[in-house]
Automatic annotation (TrEMBL):
The chain crosses the membrane at residues 41-61, 68-86, 151-171, 265-285, 291-308, 320-344, 364-382, 455-478. InterPro entries: Cit_transptr-like_dom (IPR004680), Diverse_Ion_Transporter (IPR051475). GO terms for cellular component: membrane. The keyword RNA-binding does not apply. It comes from Anopheles sinensis (Mosquito). Pfam families: CitMHS (PF03600). It is a multi-pass membrane protein. This is AGAP009284-PA-like protein.
Length: 481
């Protein structure tokens, strides 16, 4: 068996060495890694099979003429809009690989671009009840739904603060990366590619044990490849790197590589998305729309399955994140157990005592500040899903307390803004952050907790300050609720 493995490894090494180099790629390293990774990616939703996400990224490159900041802004806005109506984890999962590809073409360091993109994803996901898991938990609560919080109302109240948050986020990121060199590599891109490839082959060699002579032969084959790449790297450092090709040649090559793969499926997906969004907004008219948000989404999924007419339905069902659904089910059980033990009531009682300690006209402002800032800072370091599940009960308890006499909706908006925007604070604050970092590392680009913290935490604080100002004016001064 192992001689066959040795031959296979040798053939693979020879094969990737013979791969042709595209006009905009300095060496075959990019194509090798992209070739291997693209065929191992599993797209979590059917619309991704159309190639629309890749196409949007190439379109962004086209409309911005390959200019750095316009391209970054375009990618971030695309991601924010998509995250408003699709799960932001799915959006980031699909946008990250092609964003890395664009950055490689433009000789940009993908890490700061990806951090900016995932920040905008979390901001965009705050806009609607279906954009981020905390919003889903809030909007699906029966008590909150009965008190007038529907899809249209939620989106309307979130639109204004999210608009200002996006503006302040843009200026914060521009100040953070005001030097354009901060978005570029510290050394030429082709040198970085060779270093990444050397690391890949070294990890492959190190993963083999020393239990047999055959495994030693495999390791020697891999190390020979490492030595060849190391010699190539030394030559490159001495001679310098090859300049990038023109914008037009790069654009044509990317259009050829990333077309719309299935226009028919794209049309069917667009019809289904329009159907679901229409019914989401009809949810605000109870006499017309009797279905909950969950049933509406489920009907949309069934409609797409019918329109797509897929024979391999098992492969589609296999893409459903059953582990996530089980996690939610177990989480709700855990929260009910904590409620039965009295923890939720105790936390609510402590919050109530703080609010009662201030004058009556200041109680709403204090309640908003507590819910907003506590949920934001807690979400930065604790997963925002269990936090939101707990905070929803606390917000409802405060609204039901006749002594406090607090309206429910301002507390709901404060919780949604805090839980979603707080996820930008750290790398573990939101699932989208972790997914983006994981996909980036698979492509050879790693960013650490501290690197993300330096960018994300100031943005999170700025976003929460903007949200505080909005909530104070809208609900304390003008009593919009």
């Amino acid at each position: 068996m192992f001689p066959a493995i040795v031959d296979a490894v040798s053939d693979a090494v020879d094969f990737v060495d013979c791969l042709p180099t595209a006009p905009h790629i300095h060496n075959t390293a990019k194509m090798k890694r992209y070739f291997l990774l693209q065929h191992n990616d599993l797209f979590p939703c059917m619309c991704a099979c159309t190639g629309i996400f890749d196409y949007l990224a190439v379109y962004a490159y086209q409309v911005t003429n390959g200019k750095v900041w316009p391209l970054v802004n375009c990618l971030c806005i695309f991601t924010a809009v998509l995250s408003s109506f699709l799960d932001n984890v799915t959006t980031v999962l699909l946008m990250t690989p092609v964003t890395i590809r664009l950055c490689e073409v433009m000789e940009l360091n993908p890490v700061p671009v990806l951090m900016s993109m995932v920040i905008y994803s979390n901001v965009g996901g705050t806009l609607t009840p279906v954009g981020d898991p905390p919003n889903v938990i809030i909007a699906s609560n029966s008590y909150i739904a009965k008190n007038g919080v529907n899809f249209a109302t939620f989106t309307l109240h979130m639109a204004i603060p999210i608009f200002f948050v996006m503006i302040t986020t843009y200026f914060q990121l521009r100040m953070k990366f005001k030097n354009i060199n901060d978005l570029r590599f510290s050394e030429p891109q082709d040198v970085q590619e060779i270093r990444h490839e050397i690391a890949v082959w070294q990890r492959a060699a190190a993963s083999l044990s020393s239990y047999s002579k055959d495994e030693d032969l495999v390791r020697e084959t891999l190390l020979k490849k490492v030595n060849r790449l190391s010699r190539s790297l030394k030559k490159k450092l001495v001679s310098g790197s090859v300049p990038v090709e023109s914008y037009k040649a790069t654009l044509e090559e990317m259009k050829r590589k990333y077309p719309i793969r299935s226009k028919t499926l794209l049309v069917k997906s667009a019809i289904t998305l329009a159907f679901v969004i229409t019914f989401f907004f009809l949810h605000s008219a109870p006499d017309i729309q009797k279905l909950s948000l969950g049933w509406t989404a489920l009907l949309g999924a069934l409609l797409l399955l019918i329109l797509a007419d897929r024979e391999d339905i098992e492969s589609v069902i296999a893409r459903v994140e059953w582990s996530t659904l089980l996690f939610f089910a177990a989480l709700f059980i855990l929260m009910e157990a904590l409620a039965e033990l009295g923890l939720i009531d105790w936390i609510g009682k402590q919050t109530e005592n703080v609010i009662l300690s201030v004058s009556e006209e200041s109680r709403l402002a204090v309640a908003i500040l507590i819910i907003l800032w506590v949920s934001a800072f807690a979400s930065a370091f604790v997963d925002n899903i269990p936090l939101t599940t707990m905070m929803v009960k606390i917000a409802i308890g405060l609204a039901e307390n006749e002594t406090l006499d607090l309206p429910l909706q301002p507390l709901v908006w404060a919780l949604a803004l805090g839980a979603c925007l707080g996820g930008n604070g750290t790398l573990i604050g939101a699932s989208a952050n972790v997914v983006c970092a994981g996909v980036a590392e698979q492509h050879g680009y790693r960013f650490t907790f501290i690197e993300y913290f330096k960018v994300g935490f100031p943005v999170m604080v700025g976003s929460v300050i903007v949200s505080t100002i909005y909530l104070m004016f809208a609900h304390v001064v003008f009593t919009w609720h």
